[in-house]
């Protein structure tokens, strides 16, 4: 019997309740919910919606980053009968307010880092959704009865137009897409146990239906885990695919191309670019297992469970699809619009139609109009656009939805995307030129990173203009762009020739949240550029996204003066800005050069440099494994504790402050001597001592592991032995002082996730005069993002012994003071946290109380 409601997929007995359902990044931590925990959070929020007096059909705004709480909020709306109104996390405040007002929302769920909308309705912080606990005395939760015609959500456009327009989607719309997919999945379900559990890394915003299909609904059908991350940086995405053992990546063509570029850059940086290109040519025509063997280094880097990429939102360039297929990965393309509940056609993962966007879903009619426009008719087409009354229609009188896209279909029924009909360039000869055909030829040029072809208005007709992003822009960029255009024109028909080209001034095109270029904005910039070219031939007038990001972080102005003005950035703002740049431009940036930049012009120059490769730091996970942990306990008792007996047995004050705390915690202490960690270990209760990792000068640690040239054979041997010994005994990990510290912070988060406490010396160096130095601001960022109690500690008496030249002291002369754990919120400013911790550690000086010499 056909389902009447999407809620039927989420019955509590439909999935093993203890299996992982969702995994997401929260600061430097990774949060995980099982199906039981997700169910509980969703039903608690559904109960909260009802307790607020919201009836069936009432609208609830959801505005925030992808997370488990986002999924729970959406499902809570689904279970209670409320209508979700999702908005992109990157959406502008004014747009979000207009949507809320237009939809008449009664409740708003908004991410902590997003601005307040100042709406006359109740607001809940998304990250605190778990606070909406159901009354334990309330009766068991029951779903709100729904039918196929009842609405689930209203999805509004991304705000590029003046007035947002919402698409109403119903249970029937979603079921029309989910049911045929479920039937096909059931044919292969017996093989799923071989790779169970499947994990899908969804990089699409959940505010878009395609993101929901692959991040909420299809994982439920598969019993899979949805993984969300808060970065689009290619290196970080690859790392996350490997660490989370991801099976399938769900993203947009833009990132698929960025990952391809990252792999090619890495081979080139290792001097293996030519070898990779030879292997790539040899792999043509080989079987998939043979390709996996040939490119085993790439598969090892991504993880052996990773096998497929699902790309949607735009057409994937044929060259990029061929690249991943040649490496042995399946590339699955889908096609659809919000009005068709995201899907019209999709490629079968085991029967790919290369270059196509797949075949139409069963039960759906697809036709091509005389001009090639794709027409769609079926239950998955939305009933209308949101309006007061009546609802604005989506379909024409015959029930067809006009997509506005141009397509072709081959004899096997595969659909091919040719471009948007409204973007078709009609030449003075009356011939239609499809920009996608021209862009495909331009992208074949090795110097092109990306390309958009727009039509320039010339006497009522249009002429194709190529707008280029070059891989290596320089002083001769315009001349090189002209050569690229000429070479591409040789491969095109005469009526398709591009007569104009320009180099985009910024390091990337302005894009929508799904990474589609904003064609209208690009076209306007191109028109302005060529209209003024005669007077200012060297001026590029494209807007600066870089400048916009800087203004967002610093709340500063923009304009020509801002380009030369000195950057007034705190160290934390630089970290935040660096992360925003890497995510926006999907490339690795030199941290060292970035931290020295003094103006916006300096930052623009840095982003034009070749991709950076940060100094390698090794994170010894082997040090936390059981054999090493046993050896560490033995060595600490045989070496470290007897050494302290000679140096001076410490007096411990405040250990009782840790009663009732089992960890993990973040410990911060002042730094006096290289054996400070031994005293901290001795001061801590055994339950903390057994699972403690210690941050150490990353540059020093790396020089011990890999001694510099000229160090000498025996000296190098001693350095390496010291490295392995200090890692084994004290479980240290690198925290670089110059560059690469963000990876160390991420590793600290990983340690916390695995139940290990972390010790950091925030001064960054040992004291030289006995006075405690200022804490680096990074400790504030780490404390805010780790979301664990912070324990301040202070060591006293060691420097005085060093100053007197003494090598040992009587018991109790050296003192370790422990303060009560303190908590911080993610919204607290990092600089303020650092200063607060500095004051707390300084305040422990001369602490008195009952000491413990044992």
Summarize it:
With 854 residues, the protein is α/β, with parallel strands linked by helices.
Fold blueprint:
Elements: E1 20-26, E2 29-34, H1 35-51, E3 59-63, H2 68-80, E4 83-87, H3 93-103, E5 107-110, E6 122-125, E7 151-156, E8 166-170, H4 171-192, E9 199-202, H5 209-222, E10 225-228, H6 234-243, E11 248-251, H7 253-269, H8 273-282, H9 288-294, H10 296-302, E12 308-311, H11 318-327, E13 330-335, E14 345-346, E15 359-360, E16 365-368, E17 373-377, E18 384-385, E19 401-409, E20 415-420, E21 425-426, E22 432-433, H12 435-443, E23 448-458, E24 461-470, H13 477-490, E25 500-503, H14 519-532, H15 545-554, H16 560-564, H17 571-585, H18 591-596, H19 600-607, H20 626-647, E26 651-653, E27 666-669, H21 676-683, H22 686-689, E28 692-697, H23 698-705, H24 713-730, E29 732-735, H25 741-753, E30 757-760, H26 778-786, E31 790-796, H27 798-804, E32 815-818, H28 830-842, E33 851-852
Parallel strand pairs: 1-10, 3-4, 3-5, 5-6, 9-10, 9-11, 11-12, 12-13, 24-25, 26-32, 27-30, 27-31, 28-29, 28-30
Antiparallel strand pairs: 1-2, 7-8, 8-18, 13-14, 14-15, 16-17, 17-19, 19-20, 21-22, 23-24, 26-33, 31-32
Helix pairs in contact: 1-2, 4-5, 6-7, 15-17, 23-24, 26-28
Give structural notes:
The chain has 854 residues and is an alpha/beta fold. Helix content is 38%, strand content 18%. Among the domains are: 20-164, ANL, N-terminal domain (Rossmann fold); 424-532, 2-Layer Sandwich (GMP Synthetase, Chain A, domain 3), CATH 3.30.300; 545-607, Non-ribosomal Peptide Synthetase Peptidyl Carrier Protein, Chain A, CATH 1.10.1200.10; 621-852, Glycerol-3-phosphate (1)-acyltransferase. It contains 28 helices and 33 strands. The chain has a 9-stranded mixed β-sheet. An 8-stranded mixed β-sheet has the order 29-28-30-27-31-32-26-33, sandwiched between helices. The N and C termini lie far apart (72 Å).
């Amino acid at each position: 019997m056909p389902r009447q409601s999407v809620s039927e997929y989420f019955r509590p007995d439909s999935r093993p309740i203890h299996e992982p359902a969702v995994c997401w990044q929260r600061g430097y931590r990774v949060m995980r919910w099982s199906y039981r925990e997700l169910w509980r959070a969703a039903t608690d929020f559904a109960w909260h919606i009802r307790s607020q007096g919201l009836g069936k059909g009432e609208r609830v705004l959801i505005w925030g980053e992808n997370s488990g709480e986002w999924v729970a909020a959406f499902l809570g709306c689904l279970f209670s009968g409320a209508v979700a109104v999702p908005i992109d996390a990157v959406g502008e405040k004014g747009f979000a307010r207009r949507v809320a007002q237009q939809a008449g929302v009664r409740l708003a769920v908004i991410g902590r880092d997003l601005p307040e909308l100042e709406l006359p309705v109740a607001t809940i912080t998304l990250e605190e959704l778990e606070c909406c606990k159901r009354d334990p005395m309330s009766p068991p939760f029951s779903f709100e009865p729904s039918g196929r015609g009842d609405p689930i959500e209203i999805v509004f456009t991304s705000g590029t137009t003046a007035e947002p327009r919402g698409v109403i989607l119903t249970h029937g719309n979603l079921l029309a897409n989910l049911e045929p997919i479920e039937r096909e999945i059931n044919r292969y379900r017996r093989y799923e146990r071989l790779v169970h559990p499947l994990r899908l890394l969804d990089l699409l915003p959940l505010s878009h239906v395609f993101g929901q299909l692959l991040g909420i609904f299809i994982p439920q059908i598969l019993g899979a885990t949805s993984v969300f991350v808060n970065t689009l940086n290619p290196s970080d995405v690859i790392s996350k695919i490997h660490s989370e053992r991801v099976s399938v990546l769900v993203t947009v063509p833009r990132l698929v191309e960025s990952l391809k570029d990252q792999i090619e850059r890495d081979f080139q940086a290792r001097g293996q670019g030519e070898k990779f290109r030879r292997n790539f040519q040899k792999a043509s025509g080989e079987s998939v297992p043979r390709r996996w063997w040939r490119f085993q280094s790439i598969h090892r880097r991504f993880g052996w469970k990773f096998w497929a990429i699902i790309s949607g939102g735009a057409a994937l360039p044929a060259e990029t699809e061929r690249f991943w297929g040649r490496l042995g990965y399946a590339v699955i393309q889908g096609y659809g619009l919000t009005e068709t509940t995201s899907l019209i056609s999709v490629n079968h993962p085991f029967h790919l139609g290369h270059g196509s966007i797949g075949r139409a879903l069963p039960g759906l009619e697809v036709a091509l109009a005389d001009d090639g426009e794709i027409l769609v008719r079926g239950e998955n087409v939305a009933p209308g656009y949101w309006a007061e009354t009546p609802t604005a229609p989506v379909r024409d009188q015959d029930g067809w939805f006009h997509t506005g896209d141009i397509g072709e279909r081959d004899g096997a029924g595969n659909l091919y995307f040719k471009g948007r009909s409204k973007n078709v360039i009609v030449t003075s000869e009356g011939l239609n030129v499809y920009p996608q055909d021209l862009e495909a030829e331009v992208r074949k040029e090795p110097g092109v990173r990306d390309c958009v072809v727009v039509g320039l208005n010339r006497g009522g007709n249009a002429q194709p203009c190529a707008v280029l992003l070059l891989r290596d822009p320089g002083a001769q960029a315009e001349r090189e762009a002209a050569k690229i255009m000429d070479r591409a024109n040789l491969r095109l028909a005469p009526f398709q020739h591009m007569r104009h080209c320009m180099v985009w001034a910024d390091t990337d095109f302005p894009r929508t949240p799904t990474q589609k270029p904003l064609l209208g904005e690009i076209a306007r910039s191109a028109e302005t550029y060529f209209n003024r070219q005669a007077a200012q031939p060297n001026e590029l007038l494209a807007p600066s996204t870089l400048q916009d990001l800087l203004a967002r972080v610093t709340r500063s102005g923009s304009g020509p003066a801002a380009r030369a003005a000195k950057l007034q950035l705190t160290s934390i703002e630089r970290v935040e800005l660096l992360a925003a740049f890497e995510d926006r431009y999907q490339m690795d940036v030199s941290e060292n050069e970035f931290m020295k930049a003094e103006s916006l012009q300096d930052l623009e120059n840095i982003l034009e440099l070749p991709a950076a490769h940060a100094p390698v730091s090794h994170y010894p996970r082997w040090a936390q494994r059981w054999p090493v942990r046993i050896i560490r306990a033995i060595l600490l008792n045989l070496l470290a504790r007897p050494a302290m007996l000679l140096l001076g047995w410490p007096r411990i004050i405040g250990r009782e402050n840790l009663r009732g705390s089992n960890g993990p915690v973040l410990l911060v202490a002042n730094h006096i001597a290289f054996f400070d960690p031994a005293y901290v270990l001795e001061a801590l209760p055994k339950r903390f001592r057994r699972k403690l990792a210690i941050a150490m000068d990353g540059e020093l640690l790396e020089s011990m592991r890999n001694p510099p040239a000229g160090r000498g054979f025996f000296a190098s041997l001693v350095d390496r032995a010291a490295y392995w010994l200090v890692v084994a005994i004290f479980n240290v990990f690198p925290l670089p002082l110059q560059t690469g510290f963000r990876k160390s912070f991420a590793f600290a988060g990983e340690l916390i996730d695995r139940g290990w406490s972390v010790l950091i010396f925030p001064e960054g160096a040992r004291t030289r005069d006995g006075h405690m130095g200022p804490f680096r601001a990074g400790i504030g960022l780490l404390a805010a993002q780790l979301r664990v109690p912070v324990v301040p500690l202070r060591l006293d008496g060691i420097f005085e012994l060093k100053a007197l030249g003494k090598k040992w002291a009587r018991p109790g002369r050296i003192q370790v003071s422990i303060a009560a754990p303190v908590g911080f919120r993610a919204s607290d400013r990092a600089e303020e946290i650092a200063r607060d911790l500095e004051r707390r550690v300084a305040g422990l000086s001369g602490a008195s109380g009952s000491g413990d010499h044992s």
